[in-house]
Design goal:
alpha+beta, conserved putative lor/sdh protein from methanococcus maripaludis s2 fold, Elongation Factor Tu (Ef-tu), domain 3, 4 domains, 6-stranded antiparallel beta sheet, 6-stranded antiparallel β-barrel, 7 helices, rod-shaped
Protein backbone atom coordinates (compact mmCIF):
# COMPACT_ATOMS: atom_id res chain seq x y z
CA UNK A 1 0.00 0.00 0.00
CA UNK A 2 2.83 2.34 0.94
CA UNK A 3 4.73 1.47 -2.25
CA UNK A 4 1.69 2.32 -4.30
CA UNK A 5 1.39 5.72 -2.61
CA UNK A 6 5.00 6.56 -3.39
CA UNK A 7 4.48 5.65 -7.03
CA UNK A 8 1.44 7.93 -7.22
CA UNK A 9 3.46 10.84 -5.82
CA UNK A 10 6.27 10.33 -8.33
CA UNK A 11 3.82 10.17 -11.20
CA UNK A 12 2.21 13.44 -10.07
CA UNK A 13 5.66 15.11 -9.92
CA UNK A 14 6.45 14.11 -13.46
CA UNK A 15 3.13 15.48 -14.64
CA UNK A 16 3.85 18.88 -12.91
CA UNK A 17 7.25 19.13 -14.59
CA UNK A 18 5.68 18.50 -18.01
CA UNK A 19 3.10 21.24 -17.40
CA UNK A 20 5.80 23.82 -16.46
CA UNK A 21 7.85 22.99 -19.56
CA UNK A 22 4.81 23.39 -21.79
CA UNK A 23 3.93 26.78 -20.28
CA UNK A 24 7.50 28.06 -20.73
CA UNK A 25 7.62 26.94 -24.38
CA UNK A 26 4.28 28.60 -25.04
CA UNK A 27 5.43 31.92 -23.54
CA UNK A 28 8.75 31.75 -25.41
CA UNK A 29 7.01 31.09 -28.68
CA UNK A 30 4.64 33.97 -28.02
CA UNK A 31 7.54 36.34 -27.42
CA UNK A 32 9.16 35.26 -30.64
CA UNK A 33 5.93 35.84 -32.47
CA UNK A 34 5.57 39.30 -30.95
CA UNK A 35 9.12 40.20 -31.82
CA UNK A 36 8.67 38.95 -35.29
CA UNK A 37 5.50 40.93 -35.54
CA UNK A 38 7.37 44.20 -34.58
CA UNK A 39 6.22 44.52 -30.95
CA UNK A 40 9.14 46.10 -28.87
CA UNK A 41 10.71 44.15 -25.96
CA UNK A 42 10.16 45.29 -22.30
CA UNK A 43 12.61 47.95 -20.89
CA UNK A 44 13.21 49.04 -17.25
CA UNK A 45 12.17 52.59 -16.41
CA UNK A 46 14.59 54.78 -14.39
CA UNK A 47 14.50 58.23 -12.84
CA UNK A 48 17.45 60.47 -13.68
CA UNK A 49 19.06 63.77 -12.75
CA UNK A 50 21.38 65.96 -14.76
CA UNK A 51 24.80 66.73 -13.30
CA UNK A 52 25.21 70.49 -12.90
CA UNK A 53 27.52 72.89 -11.11
CA UNK A 54 26.30 74.46 -7.88
CA UNK A 55 27.95 76.68 -5.29
CA UNK A 56 28.89 74.94 -2.06
CA UNK A 57 30.45 76.27 1.10
CA UNK A 58 32.60 73.64 2.84
CA UNK A 59 31.32 73.02 6.34
CA UNK A 60 31.73 70.54 9.14
CA UNK A 61 28.62 69.40 10.96
CA UNK A 62 28.61 67.67 14.31
CA UNK A 63 26.61 67.13 17.47
CA UNK A 64 27.64 68.01 20.98
CA UNK A 65 26.55 69.25 24.37
CA UNK A 66 26.62 72.53 26.26
CA UNK A 67 28.92 72.54 29.27
CA UNK A 68 30.06 75.11 31.83
CA UNK A 69 32.93 77.49 31.09
CA UNK A 70 34.62 76.71 34.40
CA UNK A 71 33.75 75.43 37.83
CA UNK A 72 34.94 76.31 41.31
CA UNK A 73 34.88 73.99 44.30
CA UNK A 74 34.23 76.03 47.46
CA UNK A 75 36.01 74.65 50.53
CA UNK A 76 36.57 75.80 54.12
CA UNK A 77 39.96 76.55 55.66
CA UNK A 78 38.83 75.97 59.24
CA UNK A 79 36.57 73.55 61.02
CA UNK A 80 33.26 74.48 62.60
CA UNK A 81 29.51 73.98 62.65
CA UNK A 82 27.31 75.08 59.75
CA UNK A 83 25.41 78.03 61.19
CA UNK A 84 23.39 79.11 58.13
CA UNK A 85 22.89 78.16 54.46
CA UNK A 86 21.65 80.81 52.04
CA UNK A 87 21.53 79.00 48.66
CA UNK A 88 20.29 75.77 47.14
CA UNK A 89 21.36 73.73 44.12
CA UNK A 90 20.47 75.65 40.97
CA UNK A 91 20.58 79.05 42.69
CA UNK A 92 22.20 81.85 40.72
CA UNK A 93 24.99 83.51 42.66
CA UNK A 94 27.28 86.48 42.12
CA UNK A 95 30.99 86.66 42.82
CA UNK A 96 31.48 87.41 46.53
CA UNK A 97 27.91 86.47 47.49
CA UNK A 98 27.52 84.76 50.89
CA UNK A 99 26.65 81.07 50.54
CA UNK A 100 26.85 79.90 54.16
CA UNK A 101 28.35 80.75 57.55
CA UNK A 102 30.31 78.60 60.02
CA UNK A 103 30.50 79.02 63.79
CA UNK A 104 33.95 78.44 65.36
CA UNK A 105 34.04 79.34 69.08
CA UNK A 106 37.78 78.61 69.33
CA UNK A 107 38.55 81.37 66.85
CA UNK A 108 36.37 83.84 68.75
CA UNK A 109 38.23 83.08 72.01
CA UNK A 110 41.57 83.26 70.20
CA UNK A 111 40.69 86.71 68.92
CA UNK A 112 39.95 87.98 72.43
CA UNK A 113 43.22 86.52 73.72
CA UNK A 114 45.18 88.11 70.89
CA UNK A 115 43.57 91.49 71.50
CA UNK A 116 44.69 91.25 75.15
CA UNK A 117 48.22 90.42 74.01
CA UNK A 118 48.16 93.50 71.79
CA UNK A 119 47.26 95.71 74.74
CA UNK A 120 50.11 94.22 76.79
CA UNK A 121 52.58 94.60 73.95
CA UNK A 122 51.49 98.19 73.35
CA UNK A 123 52.01 99.03 77.04
CA UNK A 124 55.44 97.39 76.99
CA UNK A 125 56.37 99.41 73.91
CA UNK A 126 55.26 102.66 75.50
CA UNK A 127 57.30 101.83 78.63
CA UNK A 128 60.42 101.03 76.63
CA UNK A 129 60.03 104.21 74.60
CA UNK A 130 59.74 106.23 77.82
CA UNK A 131 62.89 104.56 79.14
CA UNK A 132 64.71 105.38 75.93
CA UNK A 133 63.65 108.99 76.16
CA UNK A 134 64.77 109.09 79.79
CA UNK A 135 68.07 107.53 78.80
CA UNK A 136 68.62 110.28 76.26
CA UNK A 137 67.95 112.92 78.90
CA UNK A 138 70.39 111.23 81.23
CA UNK A 139 73.09 111.40 78.57
CA UNK A 140 72.44 115.12 78.16
CA UNK A 141 72.60 115.52 81.94
CA UNK A 142 75.92 113.68 82.08
CA UNK A 143 77.32 115.93 79.38
CA UNK A 144 76.23 119.00 81.31
CA UNK A 145 77.68 117.47 84.49
CA UNK A 146 80.99 116.99 82.68
CA UNK A 147 80.99 120.64 81.66
CA UNK A 148 80.35 121.64 85.27
CA UNK A 149 83.08 119.29 86.45
CA UNK A 150 85.53 120.77 83.98
CA UNK A 151 84.70 124.27 85.24
CA UNK A 152 85.07 123.17 88.85
CA UNK A 153 88.36 121.46 88.04
CA UNK A 154 89.64 124.65 86.43
CA UNK A 155 88.64 126.60 89.52
CA UNK A 156 90.36 124.11 91.78
CA UNK A 157 93.49 124.38 89.64
CA UNK A 158 93.48 128.15 90.14
CA UNK A 159 93.03 127.73 93.88
CA UNK A 160 95.74 125.09 94.00
CA UNK A 161 98.14 127.35 92.13
CA UNK A 162 97.41 130.17 94.59
CA UNK A 163 98.06 127.85 97.54
CA UNK A 164 101.27 126.68 95.90
CA UNK A 165 102.52 130.24 95.52
CA UNK A 166 101.46 131.08 99.05
CA UNK A 167 103.25 128.01 100.34
CA UNK A 168 106.45 128.96 98.54
CA UNK A 169 106.32 132.44 100.03
CA UNK A 170 105.67 131.16 103.51
CA UNK A 171 108.43 128.60 103.15
CA UNK A 172 110.80 131.48 102.52
CA UNK A 173 109.44 133.32 105.56
CA UNK A 174 109.79 130.14 107.63
CA UNK A 175 113.34 129.73 106.41
CA UNK A 176 114.34 133.10 107.87
CA UNK A 177 112.45 132.39 111.09
CA UNK A 178 109.44 134.52 110.30
CA UNK A 179 106.97 131.69 110.92
CA UNK A 180 106.58 129.06 113.50
CA UNK A 181 106.79 125.37 112.79
CA UNK A 182 103.14 124.99 113.59
CA UNK A 183 102.07 127.74 111.20
CA UNK A 184 104.09 126.40 108.26
CA UNK A 185 102.77 122.92 108.95
CA UNK A 186 99.22 124.23 108.68
CA UNK A 187 99.95 125.87 105.32
CA UNK A 188 101.62 122.75 104.03
CA UNK A 189 98.58 120.64 105.04
CA UNK A 190 96.21 123.07 103.32
CA UNK A 191 98.19 122.80 100.08
CA UNK A 192 98.35 119.00 100.29
CA UNK A 193 94.60 118.81 100.86
CA UNK A 194 93.88 121.13 97.95
CA UNK A 195 96.16 119.13 95.68
CA UNK A 196 94.48 115.91 96.71
CA UNK A 197 91.07 117.38 96.01
CA UNK A 198 92.27 118.59 92.62
CA UNK A 199 93.63 115.17 91.65
CA UNK A 200 90.46 113.51 92.95
CA UNK A 201 88.36 115.85 90.81
CA UNK A 202 90.44 114.88 87.78
CA UNK A 203 89.70 111.19 88.38
CA UNK A 204 86.02 111.88 89.00
CA UNK A 205 85.82 113.84 85.76
CA UNK A 206 87.53 111.04 83.87
CA UNK A 207 85.00 108.61 85.34
CA UNK A 208 82.13 110.86 84.24
CA UNK A 209 83.50 110.93 80.70
CA UNK A 210 83.51 107.14 80.33
CA UNK A 211 81.22 106.38 77.36
CA UNK A 212 81.18 110.02 76.34
CA UNK A 213 84.68 110.30 74.89
CA UNK A 214 85.80 110.57 71.30
CA UNK A 215 87.53 107.23 71.76
CA UNK A 216 84.15 105.69 72.65
CA UNK A 217 82.69 107.02 69.40
CA UNK A 218 85.60 105.59 67.44
CA UNK A 219 85.19 102.21 69.17
CA UNK A 220 81.51 102.20 68.17
CA UNK A 221 82.49 102.76 64.55
CA UNK A 222 81.70 106.45 64.31
CA UNK A 223 83.98 109.23 63.10
CA UNK A 224 84.79 112.27 65.18
CA UNK A 225 81.90 114.73 64.67
CA UNK A 226 82.59 118.30 63.66
CA UNK A 227 79.69 119.90 65.55
CA UNK A 228 78.65 119.67 69.16
CA UNK A 229 75.07 118.84 68.19
CA UNK A 230 76.18 115.84 66.10
CA UNK A 231 78.53 114.77 68.89
CA UNK A 232 75.69 114.90 71.41
CA UNK A 233 73.43 112.85 69.09
CA UNK A 234 76.03 110.14 68.53
CA UNK A 235 76.90 109.95 72.21
CA UNK A 236 73.20 109.55 72.98
CA UNK A 237 72.96 106.71 70.45
CA UNK A 238 75.87 104.69 71.85
CA UNK A 239 74.79 105.22 75.45
CA UNK A 240 71.18 104.09 74.88
CA UNK A 241 71.82 100.96 72.80
CA UNK A 242 70.23 98.64 75.34
CA UNK A 243 67.21 100.88 75.73
CA UNK A 244 66.87 101.13 71.93
CA UNK A 245 67.04 97.34 71.71
CA UNK A 246 64.29 97.05 74.30
CA UNK A 247 62.13 99.36 72.18
CA UNK A 248 62.75 97.18 69.11
CA UNK A 249 61.86 94.03 71.04
CA UNK A 250 58.66 95.61 72.34
CA UNK A 251 57.79 96.89 68.86
CA UNK A 252 58.39 93.43 67.37
CA UNK A 253 56.17 91.86 70.04
CA UNK A 254 53.40 94.31 69.21
CA UNK A 255 53.79 93.62 65.48
CA UNK A 256 53.66 89.86 66.12
CA UNK A 257 50.47 90.28 68.13
CA UNK A 258 48.90 92.32 65.31
CA UNK A 259 49.96 89.66 62.79
CA UNK A 260 48.34 86.97 64.89
CA UNK A 261 45.18 89.06 65.17
CA UNK A 262 45.16 89.53 61.40
CA UNK A 263 45.47 85.77 60.93
CA UNK A 264 42.63 85.12 63.36
CA UNK A 265 40.46 87.74 61.64
CA UNK A 266 41.24 86.15 58.28
CA UNK A 267 40.15 82.76 59.57
CA UNK A 268 37.02 84.32 61.05
CA UNK A 269 36.31 86.02 57.71
CA UNK A 270 36.60 82.66 56.01
CA UNK A 271 33.88 81.26 58.24
CA UNK A 272 31.63 83.32 55.95
CA UNK A 273 31.60 81.19 52.81
CA UNK A 274 31.46 83.30 49.63
CA UNK A 275 31.22 82.38 45.97
CA UNK A 276 34.52 82.86 44.11
CA UNK A 277 32.78 83.26 40.73
CA UNK A 278 29.48 84.31 39.23
CA UNK A 279 27.41 81.31 38.21
CA UNK A 280 25.00 78.72 39.55
CA UNK A 281 25.23 76.28 42.44
CA UNK A 282 25.90 72.93 40.81
CA UNK A 283 26.23 70.86 43.99
CA UNK A 284 25.78 71.37 47.73
CA UNK A 285 27.55 68.94 50.03
CA UNK A 286 26.46 70.09 53.53
CA UNK A 287 23.47 70.38 55.79
CA UNK A 288 22.52 72.92 58.46
CA UNK A 289 24.08 72.12 61.85
CA UNK A 290 26.61 69.74 60.34
CA UNK A 291 30.21 69.88 61.60
CA UNK A 292 32.78 70.28 58.84
CA UNK A 293 36.53 69.87 58.94
CA UNK A 294 39.14 72.11 57.36
CA UNK A 295 39.52 71.63 53.57
CA UNK A 296 36.04 70.06 53.34
CA UNK A 297 34.23 70.80 50.06
CA UNK A 298 30.95 72.65 50.64
CA UNK A 299 29.71 73.77 47.20
CA UNK A 300 30.50 73.50 43.50
CA UNK A 301 29.78 76.71 41.59
CA UNK A 302 29.53 76.57 37.79
CA UNK A 303 30.48 79.71 35.88
CA UNK A 304 27.90 79.95 33.10
CA UNK A 305 28.42 83.58 32.10
CA UNK A 306 30.04 81.89 29.13
CA UNK A 307 29.60 78.26 28.10
CA UNK A 308 31.34 75.73 25.91
CA UNK A 309 29.78 73.70 23.13
CA UNK A 310 31.81 70.48 23.20
CA UNK A 311 31.68 68.36 20.06
CA UNK A 312 33.75 65.75 18.19
CA UNK A 313 35.22 66.01 14.71
CA UNK A 314 36.87 63.26 12.74
CA UNK A 315 40.62 63.03 12.49
CA UNK A 316 40.44 64.01 8.82
CA UNK A 317 38.25 67.05 9.48
CA UNK A 318 40.39 68.28 12.38
CA UNK A 319 43.01 69.69 10.01
CA UNK A 320 40.34 72.03 8.60
CA UNK A 321 39.58 73.60 11.99
CA UNK A 322 41.72 76.21 13.72
CA UNK A 323 41.27 78.20 16.90
CA UNK A 324 39.24 81.43 16.61
CA UNK A 325 37.19 80.07 13.68
CA UNK A 326 33.47 80.85 13.82
CA UNK A 327 30.93 78.15 14.62
CA UNK A 328 27.12 78.19 14.63
CA UNK A 329 25.56 76.44 17.63
CA UNK A 330 21.90 75.41 17.28
CA UNK A 331 20.05 74.29 20.42
CA UNK A 332 16.84 72.32 19.85
CA UNK A 333 15.67 72.85 23.44
CA UNK A 334 15.51 76.60 22.78
CA UNK A 335 13.31 76.30 19.72
CA UNK A 336 16.19 75.68 17.34
CA UNK A 337 17.79 79.02 18.17
CA UNK A 338 21.28 79.47 16.71
CA UNK A 339 24.12 81.13 18.63
CA UNK A 340 27.38 82.51 17.28
CA UNK A 341 30.56 81.14 18.83
CA UNK A 342 34.25 80.74 18.14
CA UNK A 343 36.58 77.76 18.41
CA UNK A 344 38.51 78.12 21.67
CA UNK A 345 40.16 74.75 22.30
CA UNK A 346 41.16 71.85 20.05
CA UNK A 347 42.31 68.69 21.78
CA UNK A 348 45.76 67.50 20.68
CA UNK A 349 44.75 63.87 21.33
CA UNK A 350 42.84 61.56 19.01
CA UNK A 351 40.46 59.14 20.71
CA UNK A 352 41.81 55.72 19.64
CA UNK A 353 38.35 54.12 19.89
CA UNK A 354 36.40 56.62 17.80
CA UNK A 355 39.14 58.34 15.81
CA UNK A 356 37.64 61.69 16.82
CA UNK A 357 39.12 64.86 18.29
CA UNK A 358 37.26 66.91 20.89
CA UNK A 359 36.69 70.59 20.08
CA UNK A 360 35.35 73.34 22.36
CA UNK A 361 33.57 76.42 21.03
CA UNK A 362 32.96 79.26 23.47
CA UNK A 363 29.88 81.46 23.37
CA UNK A 364 28.41 84.17 25.63
CA UNK A 365 25.54 83.32 27.95
CA UNK A 366 24.59 86.64 29.52
CA UNK A 367 20.92 85.69 29.84
CA UNK A 368 21.78 82.26 31.28
CA UNK A 369 19.46 80.57 28.77
CA UNK A 370 22.06 77.97 27.83
CA UNK A 371 22.22 75.21 30.44
CA UNK A 372 24.98 72.63 30.88
CA UNK A 373 23.89 69.32 29.36
CA UNK A 374 21.76 70.76 26.54
CA UNK A 375 22.02 69.01 23.16
CA UNK A 376 23.61 71.17 20.45
CA UNK A 377 24.06 71.01 16.69
CA UNK A 378 27.32 72.50 15.46
CA UNK A 379 28.21 73.89 12.04
CA UNK A 380 31.70 75.14 11.26
CA UNK A 381 32.45 76.87 7.95
CA UNK A 382 35.75 75.23 6.98
CA UNK A 383 36.51 76.91 3.64
CA UNK A 384 35.57 79.43 0.96
CA UNK A 385 32.52 78.93 -1.34
CA UNK A 386 33.32 77.11 -4.58
CA UNK A 387 31.60 75.77 -7.72
CA UNK A 388 31.28 71.99 -7.84
CA UNK A 389 28.99 69.22 -9.10
CA UNK A 390 26.30 68.13 -6.64
CA UNK A 391 23.96 65.17 -7.08
CA UNK A 392 21.48 63.52 -4.72
CA UNK A 393 22.99 61.01 -2.32
CA UNK A 394 20.45 58.50 -3.62
CA UNK A 395 22.35 58.38 -6.94
CA UNK A 396 25.26 56.54 -5.31
CA UNK A 397 24.91 52.84 -6.10
CA UNK A 398 27.92 51.75 -4.04
CA UNK A 399 30.18 53.69 -1.66
CA UNK A 400 33.48 52.99 0.07
CA UNK A 401 35.16 55.83 1.95
CA UNK A 402 35.62 58.61 -0.63
CA UNK A 403 35.04 56.34 -3.65
CA UNK A 404 31.67 55.58 -5.17
CA UNK A 405 29.92 54.11 -8.21
CA UNK A 406 27.04 55.64 -10.15
CA UNK A 407 25.11 54.84 -13.34
CA UNK A 408 24.88 57.26 -16.25
CA UNK A 409 22.60 57.09 -19.29
CA UNK A 410 24.04 57.51 -22.77
CA UNK A 411 21.63 57.03 -25.72
CA UNK A 412 19.22 55.07 -23.55
CA UNK A 413 21.83 52.65 -22.30
CA UNK A 414 23.25 52.27 -18.77
CA UNK A 415 26.98 52.79 -18.07
CA UNK A 416 28.67 52.43 -14.66
CA UNK A 417 31.16 55.10 -13.54
CA UNK A 418 33.64 55.33 -10.69
CA UNK A 419 33.58 58.72 -8.95
CA UNK A 420 35.46 60.43 -6.13
CA UNK A 421 33.18 61.78 -3.44
CA UNK A 422 33.53 65.05 -1.57
CA UNK A 423 31.58 66.82 1.13
CA UNK A 424 27.93 66.17 1.88
CA UNK A 425 25.36 68.94 2.11
CA UNK A 426 21.97 67.91 3.42
CA UNK A 427 20.58 65.48 0.78
CA UNK A 428 23.32 66.19 -1.77
CA UNK A 429 26.88 64.97 -2.17
CA UNK A 430 29.81 66.50 -4.03
CA UNK A 431 31.34 64.67 -7.00
CA UNK A 432 34.97 65.73 -7.22
CA UNK A 433 36.00 63.43 -10.09
CA UNK A 434 34.22 61.17 -12.58
CA UNK A 435 31.33 63.37 -13.75
CA UNK A 436 31.05 66.31 -16.10
CA UNK A 437 28.35 68.91 -16.31
CA UNK A 438 25.34 67.67 -18.28
CA UNK A 439 25.84 63.94 -17.58
CA UNK A 440 22.58 62.07 -16.99
CA UNK A 441 22.74 60.12 -13.72
CA UNK A 442 20.35 57.40 -12.56
CA UNK A 443 18.65 58.31 -9.29
CA UNK A 444 17.92 55.51 -6.81
CA UNK A 445 19.27 52.78 -9.13
CA UNK A 446 17.81 49.27 -8.78
CA UNK A 447 20.25 46.64 -7.51
CA UNK A 448 19.25 44.59 -10.60
CA UNK A 449 20.40 47.34 -12.97
CA UNK A 450 23.26 46.17 -15.20
CA UNK A 451 25.79 48.02 -17.31
CA UNK A 452 24.81 48.01 -20.99
CA UNK A 453 21.12 47.55 -20.27
CA UNK A 454 18.62 49.57 -22.29
CA UNK A 455 16.30 51.68 -20.13
CA UNK A 456 13.48 54.15 -20.46
CA UNK A 457 13.55 57.53 -18.67
CA UNK A 458 10.63 58.20 -16.36
CA UNK A 459 11.40 61.90 -16.27
CA UNK A 460 12.85 64.37 -18.68
CA UNK A 461 16.09 65.84 -17.35
Amino acid sequence: MQAQTRNDIMNNGHILQLIIICVFMTVFASCQDDSAAGIPAYKDSVTTVKAAFSEITPEINSFGTITYYRKADVSVTTSGVIDAIYVEEGSSVARGQTLATINNIQLILQKKKTESQINQARAALELSQAKLKEGGLQVEARLISILIGELQLAQKKIELDDLERSLKNKEQVFAVGGMSEEAIHTVRMQYAAAKTQYELSIKQLEMQKVGLRDSDLAAAGYGIPTTQAERTRLLTVINTLILSAEVKVADASLAAAYTELEAVNQLLAETTIRSPVTGIIGMRYLELGERVQAEAKLFTVLDTSRVYAVFPVSEGESSLITESMSADITVDALGGKTFASRIDLISPIVDPQTGNITVKAILPNNLRTLKPGMFARVKVISGQPRKTILIPKTCIARKENTSGEIYTIVRGRVFAKKVRLGVEKEELIEIMEGLTEGDIVVDSPSPLLKEGQDVELKNET
